[in-house]
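User: quick one
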Amino acid sequence: GNSVTQMEGPVTLSEEAFLTINCTYTATGYPSLFWYVQYPGEGLQLLLKATKADDKGSNKGFEATYRKETTSFHLEKGSVQVSDSAVYFCALSSNAGGTSYGKLTFGQGTILTVHP
Amino acid sequence: SQTIHQWPATLVQPVGSPLSLECTVEGTSNPNLYWYRQAAGRGLQLLFYSVGIGQISSEVPQNLSASRPQDRQFILSSKKLLLSDSGFYLCAWSNALGNTQYFGPGTRLTVL
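Assistant: Done. Structure below.
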């Protein structure tokens, strides 16, 4: 079955530091990959996505590249801000097997705290 | 543009009481709809999904049920709440042929 593994965290950084949150996956077929962000007390927001190998998703200074050879989709940002403090979820969606909906499989989430 | 609403935002209920959480989507037709539960602010568990009116699929056996009385309305219910039903409940939608899900603001349920 499908699965997503992301670094546990928590991750604590100083403002303007470089961020990497690792995500690897196992899936049948050709999944689409996503990063969602959840700010305290809120729902999930789609941060970025990639639908095929070598695609790079980017948004708000964050980026992630779909690496089929290493089954990875690591999230990076060159300079984090205090406002980036949140929980980050890696997820995949696969329609393999003829399902009529895109079921999402989530990682456990990584808590990021950025200090001034 | 599409928007998704959930209410109530927070709810405190006694054990054994009934539950009804509502989710509505605006700006799209025939969406796929999903209910998730998030415990302890971390992992998400898919509870139910629906591809059309009256069509509900359950992912895990539990004390909850779901209904879709209208195209853009999705309701999560229980006849008798358990302590273990406490959590953060998230509704999401996607296009019928799409695989990108968009989430609502969530309902925090505390069962005492």
